[in-house]
Amino acid sequence: MVRAPATVLSTPCEPVNPTAAETVRLAEDLAATMRVSPGCVGLAAPQIGVGLQVFAVDVTGHPKTRTCHGLLVLCNARIVAASQWHKGREGCMSVPDLTGDVKRAGRLVVAGQLPGTGEDVEFSTNAFEARALQHEIDHCAGLIFLDRVTGADAVYARKVYQPPRG
């Protein structure tokens, strides 16, 4: 797992060809790595040292989940619409010792491409899944949650170790 301040985490990622074999392998690696990382609900390619626009999110079973699309693996994702902004606490596997308050959209429309087929998809979500998607889209844009905290007083040391969330 790549940790801040690694350059790959602060560099905007390159778009990918979602049908390329290497993209499909990367998508599979992200989903597998996320699944074996306790507490992880999302993982983006830069977090494993790859500067490409691919990420995986799965909020299944998380207590804050309202809407859940199951495992989502997207290439070249972008936010189409965002509304109902709320502040919430975030953590990240690439910043394991800190959490922070970040203002994010509570309702979101996301578009992207599926690895393998290249199919264009667009879907709506809300609450925790929306937050997780924005967090991973930010990783692909070269941003970590610390770039979006609501102020210096909104960054906290993890008091008790909890498995970090992607």
Search tags:
single chain; 166 residues; Peptide Deformylase; 2 helices; 6 strands; 34% strand
Task: Present the secondary structure layout.
Elements: H1 21-35, E1 42-44, E2 54-57, E3 72-92, E4 95-113, E5 120-126, H2 127-140, E6 155-157
Q: Can you describe this structure in just a few lines?
A:
The chain is α+β, with helices and mostly antiparallel strands and 166 residues long.
Structural summary, described in words:
- Strands 1, 2, 3, 4, 5 and 6 form a 6-stranded antiparallel β-sheet that branches.
- By secondary structure, the protein is an alpha+beta fold.
- The chain has 2 helices and 6 strands, in the order αβββββαβ.
- The radius of gyration is 15 Å and the shape is globular.
- The protein has helices at 21-35, 127-140; strands at residues 42-44, 54-57, 72-92, 95-113, 120-126, 155-157.
- Helix content is 17%, strand content 34%.
CATH fold assignment:
Peptide Deformylase
Instruction: Tell me the total number of β-strands.
Output: 6
Tally the structural domains.
1
Distance between the first and last residues' Cα: 11 Å
Helix content range: 10-25%
Mean pLDDT: 94
- Kindly provide the radius of gyration, computed on alpha-carbon positions and rounded to a whole number of angstroms: 15 Å
